[in-house]
Amino acid sequence: MSWYVLNNKEKIIGLLNYLISKEAKITIQIKGEKTIFTSKFIEINYNLRDASSKIGVEPRLIIERMTPDKGNTLIQSVPYVSVGFAINENYCKCLVQYVGIINTYPYFGFIMNVPEDIEIKEKRREDRLVYQMPEVVSAEVRLENGTKDGKVYNLSVSDCSRYGLGLLIAKKDAELLQMINRGDTLNDITCFTKSAMMKVNGTVRHKTKIEEGRYKGCYIIGIESPEIIEGCKPDEYGTNGSYHTHP
Q1: Based on the structure, what is the number of domains in the chain?
Q2: Please, which pLDDT band fits residue 161 given cuts at 50, 70 and 90?
């Protein structure tokens, strides 16, 4: 197993808001303390600001008071704590910085910074959970480009169906069209849903130019991915090509 690092601020905030909406339990580890404390995220607040801050207002993460209670004292003596939680059975962890206490109704807990990145533990492909609804909104494709780490392309997803993904290639990423061809296999495409991520392999099936509309002149690259296909089955009505996944 390996770890994927999510460092896109917008996606991090989206993931945290998902956890807040689900009132998901989180675990907190404090350096030097063997006890594992539990809590939950309450809100991302844009109205709180350090008096010493000379930059614009930064979002702050509010967490509930911890259990056992001794953690509520210990957290005030350390700059960072390690937070763990699960997204669709994928274990995630991050470091959050302690900022202060908040005891103003309806909040009774602690003010923390929004983490700069979140590490997501990737399961082996054969063990991965099939998502209830892919709803992939963006994807990352990494190509070698003759460099050590390769280049990462952050692409929007135009559609996600039982056939795979349609990746939108904007003009800024036009070079990608020259680097991949029909029949090529792309490994470890990182797909982001509204609440989580997954990696899949896919085969390039077509490159289609958009002739009209908002994205005129851009291209759609069709990616066939068995791992997405396996998760999509016809709905019980079987109408309008509408599909969803069944557990």
Answers
A1: 2
A2: low
